[in-house]
Amino acid sequence: MNKKDFGFGTQIRKSPYFDATVRWGAKGFSVYNHMYIPRDFGDPEQNFWNLIQTAILCDVAVERQVEITGDDAFKFIQLLTPRDLSNLSIGQCKYVLITNADGGILNDPVLLRLGENHFWLSLGDSDILLWAQGVAINSNLDVKITEPDVSPLQLQGPNSGQIMINLFGNSIKDLKYYWFRELELDGIPLIVSRTGWSSEFGYELFLRDGTKGNELYEKIMEAGKNFGIKPGHTSSIRRIEGGMLSYHADADIHTNPFELGLDRLVNLESNVDFIGKDALKKIKKEGIKRKQVGLEINCERLSGPNTKFWPLKFQTKTIGKVTSAVYSPRLKKNIALAIVDINYSKTGSKIDVLINDQIFNCNVIEKPFFDPKKKITSKSFQF
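Now predict its structure.
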């Protein structure tokens, strides 16, 4: 497909890998974080098998970075999140939540600590740059908040380790899960982390010079040609199997961490202050009224992910909604993430879902649906 077949405007930003993804077969794009992201390289089920069997390279430059520096940067980043960061080392990443004064989730980024007072927030779809700049104005803290020239790629799948050795040598094998290091690849400045939005073993390569996007993409594809690498996109099938959240779908400003079972990311016991602490204390004391669950939907194979929220019913009562649903070809069933009234959230509960004016039976089941202990993503380097 040629670029002339797409219609694009200047108000939405293209990634440094845009031309490369079109050249490698991108057939469709959506908008995420005010940027175009390739979402179609053909059959999404084949993309899933490529991910779990060999490796895929995904343009995720839409994971825009918020850079926080200054003498009070650590104090400020702790103000933004309820997660305790006291043991966050330089070179380490942490999955965090950003909450507002009501305890609502504004985003669930990955935090990278590049220096004593140097941080990146690697964002899901949200305007946290504007939120952070607004918070900073009245914080009386010495911080600078910008968006740096940083564009991540995701190399994910069981063969990604061998491809990384091809690129960087054997030393890359020592990189631990949720840690990163600063590297260069033939003069291309990078930060490489053992992270990714796939629930598979993999890496993210954060390009620090947007002019080198085409060059970096091609180098990775060349390094992976003997290991089955394919151009791809983030897999809805795999991320739902892994119970990974998609912001605006599975969580939003009206969702609190306890409803999602993310209590471990909320530190209410220490003297550390953060935005939303009082609200979250109250929510925890009073108890939640709804909860995220996993569902098995008993209907014909879903043709693709849901494009709207599906109401959940018990008899005639609406008790929640399906937020993300897909057919898993590996599990051979329809699986979904849903938010439901706490009274219907127990594993084994039977409820109904309304899909296009048809009612189907659902079973509440444990999530994640596959690899619940995250053995795949967290294992040491794999051959």
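The longest strand covers residues 317-328.
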